Amino acid sequence: MSDPVNSIAEWLRTIFSNWGLSEGLITVILAVLGVVILAAFVLIIDIMLVWIERKIVARFQDRFGPNRVGPFGIIQPIADVIKLLIKEDIMPNGADKFIFNIAPIIALAAVLLLWAVVPFAPTIIGADINVAVLYVVAIGSIGTLAIIMAGWASNNKYALLGAFRTVALMIAYEVPMLIALLVPVLLARSMGMQTIVAAQSTWYIFVVPLAAVILFISSIAELGRTPFDISEAESEIVAGFHIEYTGMKFGLFYAGELLHALTVSALISTLFLGGWRGPFVDQVPILGPVYLFIKSFLVYYLIMWIRYSFPRVRIDQMLGFNWKFLTPLALFLLIVVAILDKLLVGTSQAVYVLVMLGANLVIVWATVLILRAYARVERKRIGEERPVAISPDTESSELVGQE
Q: Which domain holds residue 255?
């Protein structure tokens, strides 16, 4: 069976037709079943991500990680879910109950909705819409709304401050992320995810690697992961917008963060790593999800590697890095790619790829030179402003005489 998903769908359609159901009702039932199965599959993976991440970070930090509940601690995430479910649900005094309760649901739902447009194979996709990239940007903004709802409804100044800082960071980094998303759209001449994947006879990461790097950095900032984890700056805002959440409500925020990291990895794999493309996938479409998740987990591993290797930076440094460096760089890259794409119409694929790749490398080289010159100027300025150190051998009488 080369395409089991669509074969099962046709089998169910035949059964429902024999029951006398109308074609419209059958389509709705199959759509609901598809949503439930996809959501359940993704959430099960999300639970396993807890174990995977804890084991990997344990190796980074030279320890064992979960190793008691089940073989290699593999059942530990199940125990964590049970613990969250039976914990006491606390509601702060003065909180807006409806908004407080619905915020974590919206945060998780916004991530789940992104999977509707992720193509798993040539014939396996939830919704093959022609504005899928625009859909991703729009749905991603709902997560920002959930954070500000949680901070405001908690009736806690630390939660509200954490929500303001997180939303400021997320809105700022949506700008270079959106610009970077326009690059594969420009190259494929479509916003449809399937069309973008099909157009990658050469993976776009080899054509416009700088766009992939910009999207990757912006996505980490959107996730709120180190070094951009300002939402969990415990020493400053006591854990941020979800400080008042307990039990499974906090668990939904945590699950949404982990799943969002995997979702971003899947989107980057789709836009720049060929998505489901791989050997024999046209003959055996079920290999498509395998290739997609292998690429996605490689990107996810890179996200984890960065998270557990870099310290947090300040909110002003984050915003300055975005507005003064990342956004101008993304805009310049988009302009260069657009001009070269127009000039290279009619050339061979090899020439197109080499010219685009060369332009990206030149931009990176020029950026490094500019940053080195800026660093020299800053070091000189700081050295001139630094006060003269007093030698310990200087007599106090000499200092008094100088005064």
A: 91-376
Residue 39, pLDDT > 90, answer: no
* The total number of structural domains that make up the chain: 2
Q: Which of 22, 56, 86 is the last residue of a domain?
A: 86
In this prediction, residues 83-99 reach a mean pLDDT of 88
Q: Which two tokens stand for residue 296?
A: 């996605």
Half-sphere exposure of 160 (CA within 13 A, CB side): 7
Same structural domain, 126 and 179: yes
Q: How far apart are CA 68 and CA 65, in angstroms?
A: 9
- Of 233, 246, 301, which Cα lies nearest the Cα of 49? 301
Element spanning 240, H or E = none
Answer whether residue 262 is part of any domain: yes
Evaluate if residue 397 carries a pLDDT over 60. no
Residue 366 CA to residue 241 CA, distance in Å, equals 40
Counting Cα atoms < 13 Å in the Cβ hemisphere of 71 gives: 0
Q: What is the pTM of this model?
A: 0.87
Would you say residue 121 has pLDDT above 90? no
Statement to judge: residues 337 and 296 lie in one domain: yes
Specify whether 142 is located in the same domain as 59: no
